[in-house]
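Objective 1.3, modelling of assemblies. Example input:
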Amino acid sequence: MKKDLNHHSIKQLLDLSTTRIKPSTLNKLQAARMRALEHQRIARSAPVLSWLGHSGTHGSGAHHWSRRLNWALVVLFVACLFSGAAYWQSSIAEHDTSEEDIAILTDDLPLHVYVDPDR
Amino acid sequence: MRGLITRGVSKLASHHELSAFLTEIERRAYKQAMFAIRDEHVALDIVQDAMLKLAEKYGDKPAAELPLLFQRILQNTIRDHYRRQKVRSMWTTLMSSLIPQHDESDFDPLDTLQDKDNNSQAARPDDALGQAQTLALIEDELKKLPARQREAFLLRYWEDLDTAETAAAMGCSEGSVKTHCSRATHTLAAALKKKGVHIS
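Predicted structure (tokens):
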């Protein structure tokens, strides 16, 4: 029996102990491993506009910030879209109003303005 | 740390990498669970649960993060088992005090963990090889260590985690890890010394 041990030799002995596990147990461990691998979580596909914030492979912290940047960009894009639509609507209304005003001032109102369409 | 563990690499684990990692770790994980639980079937269940949780929840993490995540999951799963046993034992005691007593005494699984005269350990190999004898001694003494000391000792000196990583896996401070490791080493050294084996 070995009389003098240190942490390294204890580790070697413990490693040796793993080679003496029963074959039936090893089979069960293998089955467990296969079951686990069937359930492996796969990284989700990149969110919209992710290419804008993407700068290679990140660690978890950088990846986290990249995802936040992507979401910020998406929110910004949607906000721009809405404000653009609102501006376009208001400019059309303003344009219609101003055309009528000019027509009134110049006595150039078309005939259909005087006709009541309900009659 | 061993094998796959390469510090600073943050590439996400592929199916192959996770498979290689689990293949590498499964035997040691089983032995760790056996030291703690001393029941082959429960130990297998615990390792299976830990593998499944790792794959399901962290299967898309970088390969370098897997060892620490797995150890944390494994230790938590072992602790959860202890807690469930404790609760079950508490209910059993409560129920047995409410219903008429039987002659046969209730079996409390936790007793096996605290019983100094525990006879549930595997028989020493008859081949009497020096290595096998020493290994059997170490395994016996490891089983007798308090759970947290054994956990710290195995993570530090078998899994090769450093103090900070061990602390992260155990969910405690680095100071606690040092204390647990020191106490475990002293207890093991004292126990083995009685049997003629010295730890330097």
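Residues 34 and 41 of chain B are 9 Å apart (CA to CA).
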